[in-house]
């Protein structure tokens, strides 16, 4: 009985079943629960800075690529995009990648506070090397995410180089079985950005019998390898916040004619700092010193620049030792901090400190800073982020500066009546809530020249509104010389990175051969099944099946 039913089943294989399989297989594939979209990822990434300073190119010169992703240890050709954590890349590896790889994508640390001091020092050194060299390959930075971390770990474990394989067969097996990623960034070609730095200044006018002016200046931009991630908590959100608080404190003192000091206090927020050679300060000085109808800077006795004042004990940086009896000498004595003397070297590409721009114009100037050297990499680091400790240090340095400046303005000495000194101390109280709020807000805003000089409003508008609470504010827009530009900024500064999970080409070849072999085996098995069944029935029944 069952043999008769098997005869019917065998007749099926004599028909068109092999052709049905060509229709059924695609249907099964389409109905598969595997979601192809899960094999792709999308990330926001930020391009390494690109600019020219006095026509000398700096930074990354490319923006787009479509390459196979590889780890630090498995890449080998310009067809590979190296994907790694920032803290894992050595200086030697970066130099090799810059000259031989196709692109570089770096994942930033998850949390700066968990980095060891050695790791921070290593990142600072790497940033210094990267910023000093022109890089022709695309370099992008991504903020930490679990998905990106997984991709890096998968790349590290998926590709095993031939040197680490025991045999040729093992190397071939590793190549076939490994997971791959295609990394794609489609961004516009690098193009020039229209740069219009804006500086702000306002005055608290002293007694009419005096024309002496004291300038308090700070730049409010930030600098790092990545324009859109340049938050600069210490350099120089701290300096800008300190200037705003000093403006608030002295506006209270100067509000009453009887309390007004003799000199005029001029507060200036300048938009470009050391990364662009203090371009805004240069243009601002030209505007008010080289113009016959401008009297703003005609009688300046002292210029105090605030730069990075939240990392520790402050020091004064000067281009020449303060002259005894002068305002700079008086302020130094009242600050009770050591003075660090460094001559101006015009042969250097960049000036060391902001006061040098004023000293070149023969103004008595000095810089108050927590940093001991202008070469400190923390001035241009991605790790320059806010902290509670830095905020408390900033408050203490503002108190120190306000007390010293007030004692100079009002000529308060150790012999001054204690009651009078106490009155000034009460008036000089620092609003810690305001300092903390501005410090955290500025430290959360990208303030690179690429961002500040091309945006409308934003940080500049917020600072103008804040300073205008205490005095009338004048804004100055500076333009770059088109014939011999002091600097040129380039975009794009950010893009979208796509990561597609793929298999190596050799895997596709082997898979294709395996599928062809499998289908061939199935086809011949189906074609041979009737003959096999006939022979099988003959053995079982002892006679040949008669059709």
What do you see in this structure?
- There is one protein chain.
- It is built from 16 helices and 20 strands.
- It has helices at 2-13, 17-30, 91-100, 117-132, 146-158, 168-177, 233-254, 279-289, 327-335, 355-360, 388-409, 418-427, 432-442, 449-452, 458-467, 505-541; strands at residues 40-47, 50-53, 56-60, 65-70, 80-85, 103-107, 134-135, 139-142, 180-185, 191-193, 198-204, 213-219, 264-270, 300-306, 315-318, 339-341, 365-369, 473-477, 487-491, 494-502.
- The chain is elongated and about 135 Å long.
Which term fits the overall shape? Answer: elongated
Spatial sequence of strands, sheet with the most strands: 16-15-17-14-12-13-11-18
- The domain tally reads 2
Largest sheet: 8 strands, mixed
Strand content: 15-25%
Radius of gyration: 35 Å
CATH class of the largest domain: Alpha Beta
State the CATH topology of the largest domain.
Aminopeptidase
CATH architecture of the largest domain: 3-Layer(aba) Sandwich
In short, what is this structure?
The protein is α/β, with parallel strands linked by helices and 547 residues long.
Draw up the topology in text:
Layout lengths: L1 H12 L3 H14 L9 E8 L2 E4 L2 E5 L4 E6 L9 E6 L5 H10 L2 E5 L9 H16 L1 E2 L3 E4 L3 H13 L9 H10 L2 E6 L5 E3 L4 E7 L8 E7 L13 H22 L9 E7 L8 H11 L10 E7 L8 E4 L8 H9 L3 E3 L13 H6 L4 E5 L18 H22 L8 H10 L4 H11 L6 H4 L5 H10 L5 E5 L9 E5 L2 E9 L2 H37 L6
Parallel strand pairs: 3-7, 4-5, 5-6, 6-8, 12-13, 12-14, 14-17, 15-16
Antiparallel strand pairs: 1-8, 1-20, 2-3, 2-19, 4-9, 9-20, 10-19, 11-13, 11-18, 15-17
Helix pairs in contact: 1-16, 7-11, 7-13, 9-11
């Amino acid at each position: 009985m069952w043999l008769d039913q098997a005869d019917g089943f065998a007749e099926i294989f004599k028909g068109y079943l092999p052709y049905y399989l060509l229709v059924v297989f695609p249907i099964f594939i389409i109905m598969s629960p595997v979601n192809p979209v899960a094999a792709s990822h999308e990330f926001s990434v930020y391009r390494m800075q690109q600019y020219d300073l006095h026509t000398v190119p700096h930074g990354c010169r490319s923006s787009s690529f479509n390459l196979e992703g590889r780890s630090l240890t498995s890449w080998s050709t310009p067809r590979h995009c190296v994907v790694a954590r920032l803290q894992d890349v050595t200086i030697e590896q970066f130099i090799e990648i810059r000259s031989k790889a196709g692109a570089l994508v770096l994942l930033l640390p998850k949390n700066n506070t968990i980095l060891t001091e050695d790791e921070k020092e290593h990142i600072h050194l790497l940033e210094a090397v990267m910023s000093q060299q022109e890089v022709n390959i695309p370099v992008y930075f991504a903020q930490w995410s679990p998905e990106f971390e997984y991709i890096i770990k998968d790349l590290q474990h998926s590709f095993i180089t031939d040197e680490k394989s025991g045999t040729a067969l093992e190397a071939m097996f590793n190549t076939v079985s490994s997971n791959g990623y295609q990394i794609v960034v489609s961004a516009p070609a690098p193009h020039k950005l229209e740069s219009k730095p804006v500086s702000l200044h306002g005055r608290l006018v002293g007694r009419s019998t005096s024309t002496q002016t004291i300038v308090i200046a700070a730049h409010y931009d930030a600098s790092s390898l990545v324009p859109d991630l340049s938050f600069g908590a210490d350099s120089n959100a701290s300096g800008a916040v300190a200037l705003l608080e000093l403006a608030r404190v002295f506006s209270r003192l100067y509000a009453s004619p009887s309390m007004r000091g003799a000199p005029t206090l001029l507060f200036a927020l300048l938009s470009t700092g050391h990364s662009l050679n203090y371009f805004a300060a240069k243009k601002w000085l030209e505007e008010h010193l080289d113009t016959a109808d401008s009297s703003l800077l005609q009688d300046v006795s002292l210029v105090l620049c605030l730069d990075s004042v939240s990392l520790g004990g402050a020091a004064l940086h000067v281009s020449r030792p303060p002259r005894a009896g002068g305002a700079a000498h008086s302020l130094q004595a009242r600050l009770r901090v050591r003075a660090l003397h460094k001559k101006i070297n015009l042969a250097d590409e960049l000036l060391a400190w902001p006061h040098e721009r004023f000293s070149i114009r023969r103004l008595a100037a000095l810089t108050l800073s927590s940093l001991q050297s202008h070469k400190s990499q923390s001035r241009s680091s991605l790790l320059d982020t806010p902290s509670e400790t830095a905020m408390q240090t900033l408050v203490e340095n503002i108190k120190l500066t306000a007390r010293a400046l007030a004692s100079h303005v009002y000529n308060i000495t150790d012999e001054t009546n204690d009651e009078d000194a106490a009155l000034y101390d009460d008036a000089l109280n620092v609003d810690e809530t305001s300092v903390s709020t501005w410090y955290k807000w500025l430290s959360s805003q990208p303030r690179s020249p690429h961002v500040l000089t091309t945006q409308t409003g934003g940080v500049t508008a917020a600072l103008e509104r804040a300073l205008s609470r205490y005095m009338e504010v004048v804004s100055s827009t500076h333009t770059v010389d088109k014939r011999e530009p002091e600097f040129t900024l380039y975009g794009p500064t950010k893009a979208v990175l796509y990561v597609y999970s793929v298999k190596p080409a050799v895997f596709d070849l082997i898979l294709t051969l395996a599928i062809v072999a499998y289908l061939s085996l199935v086809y011949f098995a189906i074609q041979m099944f009737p003959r096999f069944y006939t022979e099988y029935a003959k053995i079982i029944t002892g006679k040949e099946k008669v059709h």
